[in-house]
Amino acid sequence: MTPSDYEFLRKFLKDRSGLDLSADKQYLVESRLIPLARKAGLPGLGELVAKLKNGTEPLAAEVVEAMTTNETFFFRDKVPFDHLKATVLPELLRARASRRALRIWCAASSTGQEPYSIAMCLKELGPTLAGWRVEIVATDLSHGVLDKSRAGLFSQFEVQRGLPIQLLVKHFTQVGELWQLNADIRSMVQFKQLNLLQDFSHLGGFDVIFCRNVLIYFDQNTKTNVFGRLAKRIEPDGFLMLGAAETVVGLTDAFKPYPDRRGLYVANTARTAHAGAASAMPLRIVAAR
Asked: How large is the C-alpha radius of gyration of the chain?
């Protein structure tokens, strides 16, 4: 691949997906796109770049999907889900007691393990959520991973990564060599195709937004832009969950860290209210049996 071809691909990927590749990542591009070029019947990356320049849209989408990292697993990093169960849901169940409705957005949901982990956390509340309207929206750039997510089919390796055995037994059914999430959990999540670089105001407002392990691939200006638009989609007393390597510090004033909860953020306007709630007695959550 020539230097000019690599520079074209760097700009193309940043414009289309936000992926900000450094100058030394040519090996990564080659390892992921050479197989795609061969599959498309092209002799090399030079010819692939030429087709992209001519506006071959189906191929452009495949290039973006090939370069998108879809690493995920059930209850990844554990801490965010501890925060969800111990802090976020108790506060929101108190705050939303009159309207009895919750909306949660899982951005960059990959193959579905994260939104389904959230769904299982909610399912474990059992009668506590009886009569509530709960909506989980999961979005991703890739049509391929969304199709896999909707099917809810996972390999033995995938269910062994982070998923407690009791939840496997309770919420999955074995189908040949695969495991399928039961329909009641699958029905809790709506999967939609979405590019975080584009307008997402049509999604409406949310009480909780999970946007984990995706902003690390963006440059500072893109991160700041996404944070600004996330702030418009989150309720004034809502919560933002970021990945362990991500932060709002130095990027936006729209969010502030939640006291003593790593990776958990609230809107700046809600800081006082949440600080008071943090010292309040926790709501007792009854798990489903």
From this structure: 20
pLDDT in tens, 123-167: 999 999 999 999 999 999 988 899 999 999 999 999 999 999 999
CATH number of 3-67: 1.10.155
Rounded Cα–Cα distance for residues 217 and 196 (Å): 12
Residue stretches of the chain with pLDDT short of 70: 69, 270-289
Taking the complete model, does pTM exceed 0.85, yes or no? no
CA-to-CA distance for 234 and 205, rounded, in angstroms? Answer: 5
Domain 79-278 = CATH 3.40.640.10: no
Q: Cβ contacts of residue 43 below 8 Å, gap of 6+? A: 37
Q: How far apart are CA 218 and CA 204, in angstroms?
A: 24
Question: Which H helix or E strand runs over 178?
Answer: strand 178-181
DSSP letter at 216? G
Residues 10-22 have pLDDT tens digits of 999 888 888 888 8
Cβ atoms 170, 158 nearer than 8 A: no
